[in-house]
TrEMBL record:
Species of provenance: Geosporobacter ferrireducens
All copies of domain Gfo/Idh/MocA-like oxidoreductase N-terminal, residue ranges: 4-121
Keywords: Oxidoreductase
Pfam family membership, one: GFO_IDH_MocA_C3
Oxidoreductase as UniProt keyword: yes
Domain GFO/IDH/MocA-like oxidoreductase intervals: 131-279
UniProt keyword annotation of Oxidoreductase present: yes
Name assigned to this protein: Dehydrogenase
InterPro entries: Gfo/Idh/MocA-like_OxRdtase_N, Gfo/Idh/MocA_oxidrdct_glycsds, GFO_IDH_MocA-like_dom, NAD(P)-bd_dom_sf
Family annotation (SUPFAM superfamilies): Glyceraldehyde-3-phosphate dehydrogenase-like, C-terminal domain, NAD(P)-binding Rossmann-fold domains
Molecular function via GO: nucleotide binding; oxidoreductase activity
Length: 379
């Protein structure tokens, strides 16, 4: 088995998740990290031998096989382009870029260089999502005609909650849709095999201004700083998005995307109705898949490699009764990516740059719909 050397750029909440998942695979060593200001402290915490404040210095001085980009959205394009020009494989966090044009350019250069490229839509690798995909491929739900659900969180409920994602200059034109709605749309299209062909959207920005701390805080971290430690910042991105969809087979759907849903820390849900049966899954009960039937008993399928589809077994590491969750989806996603680099292309369920481009196109069309108040076709 080939040994890989990986570098991770951006060591916030998600960058740490990347480091931990890579180490669990076994043949991957995280040899360097990049983080502004506190790189040495982060490296010591994670036991990584090399650290840098500037990604260029790492890429110019360290021999790497793969680079993971876990930085704010507006930096993805610049960093990914530099990595690709160095001839290094890339794994990028979502949303892929902040514009369609940037995404198109990265897709083109990755193809030109012949490098493995990936976007971390890790929800594809939840075993019961994978199981549902296999069931739909086998027509066990019949013809899919209705899809609804959403992705809701509460970490931006208060006006004192502030993060770089709130600023459109760093996150892009949309915030909630790009940040978590992109996961929902990718999961739906990947699971059903359908494509969104039209969108209608409306946004709500509940907090017109927010109180920004005068010192930085990390994602999902709260501070009890006094009011004097804040500055009022006008907000130009959405707190909540209400989305309607039309799919290429005639199916219709809707989703609510919110970062202000009290008590829901990180809930993504799908309800898919077919002509034979329906299926429901949500991340707060992620090892179960509900199946609904008109003329028979309803059923709950529990994650267990002894009863699921053969294909689903490839992304299950533990026996039935042993929960697999958020960190495991990262591990399974990265395992496939590194197997592809090694030459095994038989499994390619992970999202590539073209899927990232698809996400940016959907975000752009959703924003267009918000601006004009009409249905918008997705080319």
């Amino acid at each position: 088995m080939r040994k890989f050397k990986a570098g991770v750029i951006g060591i916030g909440f998600i960058g740490v998740a990347h480091v931990e998942a890579l180490r669990r695979i076994g043949n991957i060593e995280v040899v360097a990290i990049v983080n502004p200001n506190d790189a040495a402290e982060k490296a010591k915490m994670l036991c990584v031998p090399k650290w840098f404040d500037d990604y260029r210095e790492m890429l110019d001085t360290v021999d790497l096989d793969v680079v993971h980009i876990c930085t704010p959205n507006h930096t993805h394009y610049e960093i990914a382009m530099y990595v690709l020009q160095k001839g290094i494989h890339v794994v990028c966090e979502k949303p892929f870029t902040t514009t369609v044009k940037e995404a198109q350019e990265l897709v083109a250069i990755a193809k030109e260089k012949g490098l493995i490229n990936a976007v971390n839509f890790h929800n594809r690798f939840n075993p019961m999502i994978y199981q549902l995909k296999k069931m739909i491929q086998n027509e066990e739900l019949g013809e899919v005609f209705s899809i609804h659900g959403g992705y809701v969180q509460d970490w931006l409920l208060y006006d004192t909650d502030y993060n770089w994602r709130i600023n459109s200059e760093e996150s892009g034109k949309t915030r909630a849709v790009a940040d978590i709605g992109s996961h929902w749309m990718d999961t739906v299209e990947n699971v059903t095999g359908l494509k969104i062909v039209e969108v209608f959207a409306e946004f709500t920005t509940y907090h017109k201004t927010r109180k920004k701390l005068l010192r930085p805080i990390e994602t999902f971290k709260r501070s009890q700083a006094a009011s004097a430690d804040y500055e009022e910042v006008p907000i130009d991105t959405e707190d909540i998005a209400f989305l309607l969809f039309r799919f290429n087979n005639g199916a219709k759907g809707n989703a609510t995307i919110s970062q202000m849903c009290a008590g829901r820390k990180n809930k993504i849900s799908l309800f898919i109705s077919g002509s034979k049966q329906s299926a429901e899954w949500d991340s707060e009960n992620l090892n179960e898949l509900f199946l609904g039937r008109r003329d028979g008993y309803n059923q709950i399928i529990v994650k267990d490699p002894s009863i699921v589809h053969e294909g689903t077994k490839t992304i299950i590491s533990y026996p039935g009764g042993h929960v697999e969750g958020f960190p495991d989806t990262f591990k399974q996603c990265f395992a496939q990516i590194y197997q592809s680099i090694e030459g095994n292309r038989s499994l390619r369920d992970f999202a590539i740059f073209e899927d990232g481009l698809r996400g940016m196109i959907l975000c752009e069309k959703i924003m267009e719909s918000v601006q004009i108040g009409q249905w918008v076709k997705v080319e």
